[in-house]
């Protein structure tokens, strides 16, 4: 058998050196791509339309993309806790932002709270009847024998928590709690009223404003619940230059003009 020619030690070392050089050259490029990657924003469902418009505006101004995931703040906070990748968290209440802060998931020092909202009672437009909500309002008479109130899950979803707090403050929660249908988000609750599957709904005024086939029949007294606030924070370890740039834009005057268009309370 003829002798087998093996590569010389010099060639082996040269090949290894070339491979290492390629790895070291690729690492900075990969790091740069990660730093410039389009940030993912986890945002409360009630921010859907405003944030989509702001994302388009940002793309027009900078040429840079942003991706969004919209759901109840409670669900998004749990996703962050499970390791879901996001660069920005925009919550519909302080509870779930404080929760992610407490878990070391978000950067409290980055927090801004540029907007707020209000709580309203809605009905299907063809059955709407304006009422005044106060402690004397007869909810059971308003709902009728089988009527239901749609809102978010009252133990976790921000709109549901606000609704329960307001009804409790008005002395009505124990009377109507069996009539409350908790949905997975404010948009899901809104859809139940739009389809006529609930007699009424408790949602944010901004959601009612963009809905079809519903009408606001009453505003909740401002002192019946804590202020509806939207804190935004960067996610720990994902605060890249691209994320910070869009985060800053979310509180920019141009973004605030979009919030105003959708009826948010701009601070």
TrEMBL record:
GO annotations of cellular component type: outer membrane-bounded periplasmic space
Descriptive protein name: Molybdenum ABC transporter, periplasmic molybdate-binding protein
Entry similarity comment: Belongs to the bacterial solute-binding protein ModA family.
Signal peptide: 1-26
Highest taxon above the source species: Bacteria
Record InterPro entries: ModA (IPR005950), ModA/WtpA (IPR050682), TAT_signal (IPR006311)
Record-listed molybdate binding positions: 46, 73, 186, 204
Molecular-function GO term, any one: molybdate ion binding
Matches recorded under Pfam families: SBP_bac_11
Subunit structure: The complex is composed of two ATP-binding proteins (ModC), two transmembrane proteins (ModB) and a solute-binding protein (ModA).
Keywords: Metal-binding, Molybdenum, Signal
Keyword Secreted: no
């Amino acid at each position: 058998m003829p002798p087998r020619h093996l590569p010389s030690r010099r060639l082996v070392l040269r090949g290894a050196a070339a491979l290492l050089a390629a790895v070291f050259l690729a690492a900075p490029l990969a790091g740069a791509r990660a730093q410039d990657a389009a940030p993912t924003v986890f945002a409360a469902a009630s921010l859907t339309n405003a944030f989509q418009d702001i994302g388009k505006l940002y793309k027009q101004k900078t040429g840079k993309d942003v991706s969004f995931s919209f759901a109840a703040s409670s669900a998004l906070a749990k996703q962050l806790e499970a390791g879901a990748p996001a660069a920005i968290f925009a919550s519909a209440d302080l509870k779930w932002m404080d929760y992610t802060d407490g878990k070391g998931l978000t950067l409290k020092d980055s927090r801004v709270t540029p907007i707020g909202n209000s709580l309203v009672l809605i009905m299907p437009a063809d059955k709407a009847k304006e009422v005044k909500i106060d402690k004397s309002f007869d909810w059971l008479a308003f709902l009728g024998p089988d009527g239901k109130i749609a809102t978010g899950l009252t133990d976790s979803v921000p709109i549901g928590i606000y609704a329960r707090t307001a009804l409790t403050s008005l002395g009505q929660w124990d009377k109507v709690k069996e009539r409350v249908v908790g949905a997975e988000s404010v948009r899901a609750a809104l859809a139940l009223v739009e389809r006529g599957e609930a007699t009424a709904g408790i949602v944010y005024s901004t959601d009612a404003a963009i809905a079809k086939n519903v009408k606001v029949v009453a505003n909740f007294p401002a002192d019946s619940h804590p202020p509806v606030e939207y804190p935004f924070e960067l996610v720990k370890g994902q605060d890249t230059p691209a994320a910070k740039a869009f985060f800053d834009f979310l509180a920019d005057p141009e973004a605030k003009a979009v919030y105003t268009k959708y009826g948010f309370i701009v601070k």
